[in-house]
Specification:
Serine Threonine Protein Phosphatase 5, Tetratricopeptide repeat, mainly alpha, elongated
C-alpha cells in the first residue's frame, strides 16, 4: 500500500469517527454506530478505542455477528490468536453463512489442516471469494501440497489479479521439487517484480529458478540485484559465486565466495578450499 493510500484511509477513518460520534450523541445505545466507530478507530490505529467500542456494541447486542468478527480482526492484528479464534467462532455460530469469518478463522488457528477446512467452507458459501482461495493456497503450502496450492492461486488470480503477492506465492510453489515448473516460476516472479520492483525475495527466488534451468547469466543478474539491495547479504554473494563458477569464471566465483565467507557464510569456506586453490 502506497503512502497516498494510507493517508486517504487515515483521513476517511477520522471522518467516520466524527460521523459516528455525532450519531452516538443522538442515540447512545446504537450498537451499529459503536461497531462502525470501532472499525474506523481500528483503521486509525486506535486499538484500545476500537476494542472499547466493539465491546460496547456487543454489550448492547450480544448477537451482533459483525461486531464479533471485527473484534476478532482487532485481536488478530494484536497477535491475540486464541481470542480472535473465539470471536470468529462466535460470529459463525450467530451467522453460519459468514464466509469472511470462516476465512479469517482459518488463518488464526495456526493449523494448516484446519485452515483448509475453514477456507473450503468459505468458498462453498462464496465461490468468488479470492481471499479464501489465497488463504487456502497458503495452508496447502504449509502442508507441502504445492499442486493444490497452485490451483488455488490460479483461482485467486482469476478472480482478482491484483491480490497482493499472489504471483510471488504461486511462483514459489512452482519451484517445489515435485512440481519443478521453473519457467512458470520465473514468469510469476517477473510479474511480481513488475508490481513490486524492490521485492528482495522475488529476485532471490527468480535467481534460484534461473540457476535450475542453467540460465546462469540471468541468475547472476538477479543475485547482483539483491546484493545492490542488501550489500551485506552473504547468501547473495555465495549464490552468485556458484553461477559464475558454472560459467567457468573461477576468479569471479572465488571472489564472491570469499566475500560470502567474510560475511559469515560458512559453506563458502568449503567452496574456496575445494575450487580456489
Amino acid at each position: 500500500m502506497d503512502k497516498n493510500s494510507i493517508t486517504e484511509i487515515w483521513k476517511k477513518s477520522k471522518e467516520d469517527i466524527e460521523k459516528f460520534n455525532k450519531e452516538l450523541l443522538i442515540n447512545p445505545y446504537d450498537a451499529f454506530s459503536y461497531n462502525g466507530r470501532g472499525v474506523a478507530k481500528f483503521k486509525h490505529y486506535d486499538y484500545p478505542g476500537a476494542l472499547k467500542d466493539f465491546n460496547m456494541a456487543l454489550k448492547i447486542n450480544p448477537n451482533y455477528a459483525e461486531a464479533y468478527y471485527n473484534r476478532g480482526n482487532l485481536k488478530e492484528r494484536q497477535h491475540k490468536h486464541r481470542g480472535a479464534y473465539n470471536d470468529y467462532t462466535k460470529a459463525i455460530k450467530i451467522y453460519p453463512q459468514f464466509a469472511e469469518a470462516y476465512c479469517e478463522r482459518g488463518i488464526t488457528q495456526r493449523d494448516p489442516q484446519g485452515a483448509v477446512q475453514d477456507c473450503t467452507k468459505a468458498i462453498e458459501i462464496d465461490p468468488n471469494f479470492a481471499e479464501a482461495y489465497f488463504n487456502r493456497a497458503q495452508a496447502f503450502d504449509s502442508l507441502h501440497a504445492y499442486k493444490a496450492s497452485i490451483q488455488d492461486y490460479n483461482k485467486a488470480i482469476e478472480i482478482n489479479p491484483n491480490f497482493p503477492f499472489v504471483f510471488f506465492k504461486r511462483g514459489y510453489a512452482k519451484t517445489d521439487f515435485e512440481v519443478r515448473d521453473y519457467e512458470g516460476a520465473i514468469e510469476d516472479f517477473t510479474k511480481e517484480i513488475e508490481i513490486h520492483s524492490d521485492y528482495y525475495y522475488a529476485y532471490y527466488y527468480r535467481g534460484e529458478a534461473k540457476y535450475e534451468i542453467a540460465d546462469f547469466i540471468g541468475a547472476i543478474e538477479d543475485y547482483t540485484k539483491i546484493i545492490e539491495m542488501s550489500p551485506q547479504d552473504a547468501m547473495g554473494y555465495f549464490k552468485r559465486g556458484n553461477s559464475k563458477y558454472k560459467l567457468c569464471d573461477k576468479n569471479g566465483a572465488c571472489l564472491d565466495w570469499s566475500k560470502a565467507g567474510e560475511l559469515g557464510y560458512k559453506e563458502a569456506c568449503g567452496m574456496i578450499k575445494k575450487y580456489c586453490k
